[in-house]
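Backbone shapes recur. Consider a single case.
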Amino acid sequence: MKTLFSAIATLVLSCATLFAAPAVEELENSQFKVSIGDVAMIVDAAHGGKILSFTYQGTEIISQMTRVNSFGSTFWTSPQAEWNWPPVPEYDNLPYSVEEQGTTLKLKGQVSERYKYRICKEFYPDPVDNAIVVTYTIINESDQERQVAPWEITRVPNDGVVFFQAPIEAISPADLLPFHSMNGIALYAADSSERNRKINANGKGWYVFANEGLMLMKRFQDLEEGEEAPREAEIQVYVNEGKTFMELECQGPYTTLKPGESLHWSVRWYLMPMNGPGIPGMGPGMPGMGPGGPGMGPGGPGGRPGRPGGAPGQRPGGRPGGPGMPGMGPGMGSSGPGTGSNSGLGQSRQQ
């Protein structure tokens, strides 16, 4: 247990040395690189403003598969019940116009003909926090009052460990993914199944994905119970069939927008080696995990029952698993006891 806390403390200790100056650089084919020190993010304005790559010293942390809906990081509106499947083209894959460039990249999406929302995205490096901040804006371009929530979806290889603060008994559907609990932290070591699976959890405004010696951390607004969209959740983990990819998802508050009104929601992206400097502002311990952090409140009931159902022809296999997270011991890395397939199945989704 102490070794786990040591690993987490390393992640969240304040960093005394600032990284190199931030920058936004235009590349070929309407792609842009947002960088701060050793961390770089590649954004594709021509294809939905997607985040294609997120690297530390050239080592990639997000999925690089080539099949549609299996790579990069995207943004949708929630609840999904409004549009079902496939993703709305104007949000997910049609071109975004470049509104501003310099130390900030601003992209403006097209208005959805069917749903009358416009999505804008802003990317900027924060040298004080050693983070890249992604701010999403949803604009109600209709002539009616609407309710909507923001939803970020980041696809990563099916390897490594995902963890966030939540009681595992509040994760739904129960026992669909083999989560383990350590002092109020829910941990899932990537496994595989013949079917797709998805869970919902009321977290505490952050999650971490550890793989290949790196830690990807996201920080976002912590939702109170009842603030999420109907049948949705603050944190969702979707595991695609086989050893292919996972989706790490976070959502913001369900918000009422009058015609012409907009909501803004930010996600702070951090990427660092497991033994590297931590994240400023988190204090001596992740919330609820170490001395000085607030205690964990009761978890919410989660959200809807899973969005699974598989895509034929997925590329078999995934990246070879990296080392287990420091201090976690056998069985909590990319393989080992407790990471076998789970027989529980979520509902199917179309691809």
About this structure: DSSP finds two helices and 21 strands in the chain. The helical segments are 2-12, 89-92.
